[in-house]
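Researcher: Please predict.
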Amino acid sequence: MDALRGFASDAGTFLNRTRQYTEEKLGSAEKTELDAHFENLQQRADRTRIWTEKIVGRTEAVLQPNPNLRVEDFFNSKLDRRPKERETNYELLGMAMIESGNDLGPGTQYGASLVKCGTTQKKLGQLEKDLVQTSITNYMAPLRNFLETDMKTILKEKKILETKRLDLDACKSKVRKAKSAEGQRTAEADLRLAQNEFDRQYEITKLLLEGVGSAHSNHLRCLQDFIEAQQNFFTQSQAALADLQKQLGSLPGSGSIRPPPHNVDVSVPSAPSYITGNGQMPVGNSMTRNAKVLYDYDAADSSELSLLADELITVWSAPGLDSDWMIGQRGSQSGKVPVTYLELM
C-alpha cells in the first residue's frame, strides 16, 4: 500500500513538472530566472566540456593517426584489456632499412648507410612511444577523467536543479490559483518546502560550477606536461638525426653527403610596449570603450591586468597587439586583458 502511495505521489509530481514545462513553453506560466553570475558559470562549464571533448579527440588523432587503431584502443580501454604492443611506423621503416642494408651488403657505402639510418629510425620509434605514453598519462588521462567524473556530476546536478525549479514554479502557480483558505495554506506550505529544496540544490550546483575554474588550473598543468613531452621528443629526435648525419659523413667515400646545418639563432624579439610609461592609456585615444568583465581572470605576468567578474573597465586596442587581447584600465592599473572575458558596451 505504501509503495502504491509512493508511486501515485511520484506520478503526480511528474505530471506537475510536465504541466509547468509545457505552460512555460507556451508562455502561459512564469519561470524562475537564475542570476547572471550563475548563468555565466553554466556557460563556462558548457564551453569547457565541449572544448575538452574536442581537444581530447584531436590529441588522440595526433598520438594515433590510424582511426581503426584508435577504435581498437578505445574498446580495449573500456574492456580493461592491456593495450596491444605495436611497432610504430618509424620502427617498421627502421627494420626494413636494416634488412635491406644487410641484404645489399653492409660493407658497401649504400648498405652501411641503410643500416645506420634504420637504427636511427628505430630509435625515433622508441622516442615516439615514450611521447605517446607520457602524453596519455600526464595529459589525456586527466582530461578524460574530468569529462567522466566532474562533468557528469555537474550535468547530473544541473538536471536535478531544473526539476527543483519546475517544482518551485508549479507550487507558485498553485498558490496563485488557490481558491479556498485551506487550499491556500496547503499550497504555501508546499511552496516553502519547494523553495528550500531549490535553494539547497542551487548552492550545490553553484559550488560544482565554480570548481570548473580549478579544473582549468589543473588542465593548464597537464598541458604544460604535454608540451614538455613534445619538446623532449623533438629535442632527442633532432640529436639522434644530427648524430646520424655525422655517422653518414664519416663513411668511406661519403664526401658528397651534406654536413649538418649550422645552428640558427631562434631567439624571440622582445615584445613591444603597449602602455605608456606612467601606466595610463595614450592621451587623445578616441577608440576607448567600456567593457563588462564576464569571468574572473588572474594575470599571468606583470604585463596583464587581473579581472573580477561583473566589474566595469575601460579598454582599447593597441597597434601590434594580438586580436585576442586588448589593453584594459581600472583606475591607475592597466595591462593586457583577454577579449573573451569581456562584454564590450
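Model: Residues 264-281 have pLDDT under 50 and may be disordered.
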